[in-house]
Automatic annotation (TrEMBL):
Coiled-coil stretches noted in the UniProt entry, renumbered to this chain: none
This protein's name: Pyrimidine 5-nucleotidase
Biological processes annotated in GO: nucleotide catabolic process; pyrimidine nucleobase metabolic process
Single GO MF descriptor: nucleotidase activity
Length: 251
């Protein structure tokens, strides 16, 4: 991952894969475990239970990541947060190798597309997940929230997407193919001209966002004009949606 080669003249498509609740199913309940840890972190700062819940949800809704609000308004150390929240997740007990996912990524025609991961987590969490799933060898680069920088940006902020293009040396955003479980993030990418965006939506399953349980797929309108958005419930559908980017023998 993270090749330092010069891609400035690379006109291939670039496939951007969100990691959490996209490369693995929400049924792993990692968002639930994460929500509990973030709530405990708010409590450790001295907030009463109810206020901790309110701020957790408010910051997630406002910034796309509760940690952004904590850093901005409470001057906490994001690396300390990462150690106590993401870093304490027993991922090895919650995830396992996914040969089917590995085959899907392996079948992408690399003469036509590069494959990068794009996450709101810090690099250590992202790398752990990719390693446990057994797909790190298929990911050419990783864009993450740099918690070491207190001014870090995150999805769905435009700055985050601009930074991603810069890191991958992408000249033409219409060459970006993006899949994410957050409709808000997908909409933000489309607004910035990312050409082939897909919403991964495991209808009916429950996830936790901002500390609150949410039935996946219930926000399909979300107040945005994206009725033409491509929605999938299984990553295998990418073989059809992006058929031109897969090896001919793979379809």
């Amino acid at each position: 991952m993270g090749s330092l080669q010069d891609n400035s003249n690379d006109d291939r498509y670039i496939i951007w894969l969100d990691i959490d609740n996209t490369l693995y199913s929400a049924s792993a309940r990692i968002s639930h475990a994460m929500g509990e840890r973030i709530h405990a972190y708010f409590l450790s700062l001295g907030f009463p239970d109810e206020e901790a819940s309110e701020l957790h949800h408010k910051y997630y809704t406002q910034y796309g990541l509760a940690l952004r609000g904590l850093v901005r308004h409470h001057e906490i150390d994001p690396l300390d947060f990462d150690r106590k929240c993401d870093g304490s997740l027993p991922l090895e007990d919650m995830l396992q190798r996914d040969p089917k996912l590995h085959k899907l990524l392996e079948d992408i025609d690399r003469s036509k597309a590069r494959v990068w991961a794009l996450t709101n987590a810090y690099k250590t969490h992202a790398q752990r997940v990719l390693r446990i799933l057994g797909v790190e060898d298929q990911i050419e680069g990783l864009v993450y929230c740099d918690y070491a920088n207190p001014e870090f940006s995150c999805k769905p902020e435009p700055e985050y997407f601009h930074n991603a293009l810069q890191q991958a040396q992408v000249q033409d955003p219409s060459k970006c193919c993006f899949v994410d479980d957050s409709r808000m993030n997908v909409h933000a990418a489309r607004q910035l001209g990312w050409g082939r965006c897909v919403h991964f939506c495991e209808q009916g399953l429950t996830t936790v966002e901002g500390g609150k349980p949410k039935e996946i797929g219930k926000d399909t309108s979300s107040g945005t004009n994206d009725s033409d958005l491509v929605v999938i419930s299984d990553l295998e559908e990418l073989r059809t949606i992006w058929a031109d980017l897969f090896k001919p023998s793979a379809n």
